[in-house]
Amino acid sequence: xxxxxxxxxxxxxxxxxxxxxxxxxxxxxxxxxxxxxxxxxxxxxxxxxxxxxxxxxxxxxxxxxxxxxxxxxxxxxxxxxxxxxxxxxxxxxxxxxxxxxxxxxxxxxxxxxxxxxxxxxxxxxxxxxxxxxxxxxxxxxxxxxxxxxxxxxxxxxxxxxxxxxxxxxxxxxxxxxxxxxxxxxxxxxxxxxxxxxxxxxxxxxxxxx
Length: 209
Description:
Blueprint: H1 13-32, H2 39-46, H3 50-56, H4 60-88, H5 93-110, H6 112-122, H7 130-153, H8 163-184, H9 190-206
Pfam families: TetR_C_24, TetR_N
InterPro entries: Homeodomain-like_sf, HTH-type_TetR-like_transc_reg, HTH_TetR, KstR2_TetR_C, Tet_transcr_reg_TetR-rel_C_sf
Domain HTH tetR-type: 15-75
């Protein structure tokens, strides 16, 4: 990932090394693509020997697969924490969805190169890591599905909601809107973008006037 802040607190030396490799790989692949990026370049960018890459990962493909798993895992954890924090504070399910939208924007703002790679890889069908990517994507979407189901069960949200599709749409909305924000509207603040998506959520999901 692009920021060392994602490194495990008090983690082992190997975890720290893997973190450096993730950061190097995501930056290089975002700059020049997966095929054009070599293990030598990843090692050089990470400041380690080439053998260190193969000690931690069997191949460049395995490194990238683990990078996707690691990054989406961080996103999933941030979404889950947003929902749980809202619940602890006594907020509604729509409040939880709104908090998750903000958490997603914060994640994407922190890791823009990873997000670009993740979105691009979702639409490829010939990658060795496609099955892994689909699994970790579903883990992230499932967090949103849980909140939607709880909202429906509690009478806060309409029973007509298609939970799987709505969850996927909300996650997709945040991903695409955030990338559009960074690429074409970089002058807007995170608060401004969140407010815009929050209004969309209130109108399209909760049905409030």
